[in-house]
Structures are given as C-alpha cells and as structure tokens.
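Box 3.1. Reading complex inputs
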Amino acid sequence: GAVVSQHPSRVICKSGTSVKIECRSLDFQATTMFWYRQFPKQSLMLMATSNEGSKATYEQGVEKDKFLINHASLTLSTLTVTSAHPEDSSFYICSASYGMSGNTIYFGEGSWLTVV
Amino acid sequence: DAKTTQPPSMDCAEGRAANLPCNHSTISGNEYVYWYRQIHSQGPQYIIHGLKNNETNEMASLIITEDRKSSTLILPHATLRDTAVYYCIVRALGGGADGLTFGKGTHLIIQP
C-alpha cells in the first residue's frame, strides 16, 4: 500500500512553546491530507482537513489559531501546535487520500506529543 | 456518513478464523465499507474495503450482506500480531476530500 510517514514519532516540549509535526506521502501525491488526535483509550478524532495550496478546514471545536496547518506541496503537510499546554499532550496522526477519487486513506505512524 | 455498530471486544484462539461483525443499517447506495485496524500506539492500518461484492486480499476477506446493512471481516488464520482494535467505517464514493469518522471499534484479542 501507499506509505505515509510522520516526523517526529515522539516529542517532548515545554509548556508555552510551539512544536511542528510533519506528514509526508512518500510514494504518491496527496492533494488532501487529514490530521487526527487520539487521547488514551479513546478513538481517533478528526481535527482538520489539509488541502494543498489552500487553507485547511477545521472541525468544530478545533482552534485554528492553535493548530496551524500548512500543506505547501503535494507530499508534505505540517501541523504546528502553538503555545502548547499539558492538555495538548496526545497522539497526533496524519493520513492522506490515495488512488482514484481518493478512495483509500493511508495513515502515518503517529506522533506522540508530551507537553511538560 | 452512515453510522456503524461493532461489538466492543472479541476473543479468538490463535490459528482460528476471526470473524468481526459490523452493522451499518443506514448505509447509502454510494457508500463503501472500509476496515482499518490499530495496533497499540501506532497509526491505523488499512485492511480492505468493498461496495457490495465480497472482497479478499492478502490480509483478510470482507463479506457484505446482500442488503448491505451489515458486513463481516474475516481474518482466516489469526495470529497474536492480529490483536488490535478493528474499525468498520462507511464512506461515500469519491469522498477523497472527506476524512474518516472513527467509532469505538472492536478490540480483538487473539489468545495463544
């Protein structure tokens, strides 16, 4: 299947700082990428849809000024958590649409963010 | 997207077939059935998807009822590495711009 890669896999940052997570489609071009967040023992929650060359679309309740998304190329989307707080500690996962009509979505390995 | 219902957990003996059910009684005619699984602390892994015909690949088989209101994912010879949370998701055809909506899934535990 298609490969989606995230970096870093784990990051620890201090409260009040910003941290960037990268999501790359390694062997295909993705006009649309998605960002999810998952808290322990819970399911994945869609945060935003990232569209190449345009502004991201955020789900209700997700602060767009806190979670900055940039999709500057067909193979790279970035999520920046600004002014991070301990409650932002979570597992962040990206995914990308692949194939005709984007019928299959492939996921990255996920990034663990711990804010101390 | 239509909602799905799955049992919260299931056990299966190693080497046996694991049959995971999913109910999607409100599925629309243009919606596919997708299955993903998530092993602890990893991103979800795509397994298989189908519209109305049964599908098989190297990982699993997908059986969709004729009325499309339910489906079953079959792992033919379960191994310990198949222990994971399995998600059944329905998604519209051509929904490349739409993210997936995850329910709580089924926690499949393969017993040695």
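In summary: Chain A is about 0% helix and 55% strand.
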